[in-house]
Amino acid sequence: MMGVSSGAKRKMAVYLAIFIALCIFSLVSGRLAPHDAEFVDLLAAKRAPGGEYPMGTDWLGRCIWSRILAGASSSIFASLVIVVLSMLVGCAIGIVSGYAGGAVDEVVMRIVDIFLAFPGIVLSIAVAGMLGPGLKNGILALAATSWTQYARLIRSYVLSLRQENFVKAARLNGQSGLSILARHIFPNAIRPVVVTGTLHLSGAMLSISGLSFLGLSSSSAEWGSMLSEGRSLMQQCPWVVLYPAIAIFLVTILFNLLGDSVRDVLDPNGKNKVLND
Amino acid sequence: MERETLLEVRDLTVRYPGAERPTLRDVALTLHPGQITCVIGESGCGKSTLFHAIMQLPGRVEITEGSVSFRGQDLRDMTKQQLRELRGNGIGVVFQEPGASLDPIRRIHVQFYEAMRAHSRRVTKQAAREKAAELLRSMEFPDPDRILASCPAQLSGGMNQRVAIALAMALEPDILLCDEPTSALDVTVQAQIVDELLRLRDEYRTCIMLITHNMGVVSKMADRVAVMYGGRIVEYGPKADVLHHPAHPYTRALLEAIPTLDGQPPRGIPGKRPDVFPAAGCAFAPRCACASPDCGTCAMEKHLILEAHWTLCPKGVTDGV
After folding, report:
1. Which of A48, A115, A149, B66 has its CA 20 to 30 A from that of B181?
2. In a domain, A209, yes or no
3. Touching check for A160 and chain B: CB below 8 Å?
């Protein structure tokens, strides 16, 4: 019988603070770059880290440090937007579906099944292809395919929570349906969703770089595409892939640590271990 | 005997949606302030169905005949708003599993606040907390503030169950419905809860309806006992009459099945509870020691033994007492 220790809360607060700082930083980091991220200088190509270029340059002589700073917005901010967007849409649809039940539930879940019948990335590519290239369209394409996991997850929780005695007790205490939904069902069902969401962050980050690798998202600097474009140079000048990889690694680690600490606080019993499908 | 009637269950026949046969038949029961009514019987006899029928949770059970009325008003005629008002204020509930009525992720004091706020928008967090602390203190919790600041997972089962009772009592309901409140707890905690329910009854004149398997609890608490079998109340009466002069063969068999310390092994009831009870005649006849052929067809009428003590078995009157 362990409660939420203040240590767990402090931990979450720290990670959350770093996370928020990182998000804000990603919005402005492009302006902090010492060089133009897209500036090609073939004379300075493949420079080792040091001096004018703290992280070296790639095969076109673009400053890697500048590109990482510039790419932070598409990598971090975009993955955040994808997660939040699909979480909002998925939760709204899932809660309505689970709480309404009956025909509504049936129809919504069949639509979800249709979405799930396609491999996620293929569907995203199709949507991004229709919308045209661009970061915004890339985000939309990925959110359009990932809301289904949230809808399914929260629906299943709403369904099982509806049978719980404390929900019955709340009703038998005279609480109204809407207040039960808002105060009992939603807060109980949201925990696994938050955990899934934080895990989804890193996946979303890789997906958006996958799309940009295919030229379907942002065409400017982006961590994922830096990695995939530079991988042929790995032996010759490892810094081209090393620094974007470290950036992805650190941010992913932070996202996962945040996810874990959020779970520790929201779910002290450990009843809902990582739920992911 | 003129007494205020809080809840009246009249000839209630209930079935689960989609079921062919009713689960409850002709159940009649009245509850008065300050009175404790125990409903006993083996699993599947309809005790919990009765509980659901009284609480009118949507989609649970279907009342086909009879009625449940609270202070003279039929529950089915109530608007949603009236029902909401009744729940909590009029009738409080305590469930079987300790603390099942507590939301696992909300602190206890928030749950008190929410329960009170559902009935009065003016309740402040502070007032709710004070009221809760006072209730918990009256239930002999040594440290109410710590309890109120805890989540259910931080408390033991017995504590949770007592908190659940306090939560149900926070709205000072006229009736407290307890669905086997002690069966998941160990004996010392059971005794504590029994004492607390008794004290609440004395203090607030709450009417308690207790569904239980536990004969010890019945003999300690009950004023009236209703024995159920096969969806009917087969015997009803004051505690002393029912426990000491049981009239229905099922009640007798049930009492004989209690283990005692005098070295005699308890006698079980032969046979198994059928999955489907017969539509006509006595449901207990196939297992009854004194059944006769016409038991399977006889009409189920109440046979009065003494004032307020009746049984459905005609034999109970002749060779019972």
Report:
1. B66
2. yes
3. no
Average confidence (pLDDT) over B112-131:
87
Q: Could you tell me the residue range of the domain that residue A108 belongs to? A: 11-44+52-266
pLDDT tens figures, B40-61: 988 878 888 888 888 877 667 7
Q: Return the bridge partners of B139, or none.
A: none
A56 belongs to a structural domain: yes
Distance separating alpha carbons of residues B240 and B233, to the nearest angstrom: 17
Cβ within 8 Å of A, B 7-26 = none
pTM over the 0.80 mark: no
CA-based angle A205:A83:A180, to the nearest 5? 160
pLDDT(B2) > 60: no
pLDDT tens by residue, B75-107: 888 888 888 888 888 888 888 887 788 888 888
- Would the CB atoms of B151 and A268 count as touching at under 8 Å? yes
Alpha carbon separation from A63 to A178, A205, A248 (Å, rounded): 55, 22, 18
Is B92 an interface residue toward A (CB < 8 Å)? yes
State the total domains in chain A: 1
Residue A261's CATH number: 1.10.3720.10
Nearest by CB to residue A173, choosing from B87, B151, B153, is B87
- In this complex, is the C-beta atom of A269 within 8 Å of any C-beta atom belonging to chain B? yes
> Is the Cβ pair B87, A188 closer than 8 Å?
no
